[in-house]
Amino acid sequence: MLYPQQNIFRNKLDLSGVWDFQVDPDQMGEQKGWQNGLVDARSIAVPGSWNEQYEGLYNYLGLAWYVKSTYIPQGWRGQRVFLRVGSACYFATVYVNGNKIGSHEGGHLPFAFEITDQIRWETENVIAISVENELKPTRVPSGNMNTPLLPVASFPHTTYDFFPFAGIHRPVVLYSVPQTYIEDVTVVTEIDGADGILKMTVRLSAAVSEQGFLQIKGGDTTVTAKLAFLDGLAEVQLTVANAKFWSDKTPYLYVLTIQTEQDHYALKVGIRTIAVQGGQILLNGQPVQMNGYGRHEDFIASGKGLNLPLLVKDYQLMRWTGANSYRTSHYPYSEEEMQLADREGFLIIDEIPAVSLQFEDDENIAVRQRMCLQQIDELIARDKNHPSVVMWCVANEPMTPRLNLTASDALNDPAVVKGKDFLDKLMRRVRELDPTRLVTFATLGGTPTSWVEHCDVVCMNRYWGWYILGGELDKALVSLEQELDAVWETWHKPIIMTEFGADTLAGMHGHPNVMWTEEYQAEYIRGHLMVAAQKDYIAGMQVWNFADFASVQSIMRVGGINMKGVFTRGRTPKMAAHVLREFWAK
Ligand code: BDP
Question: Residue 52 catalytic?
Answer without folding.
Answer: no
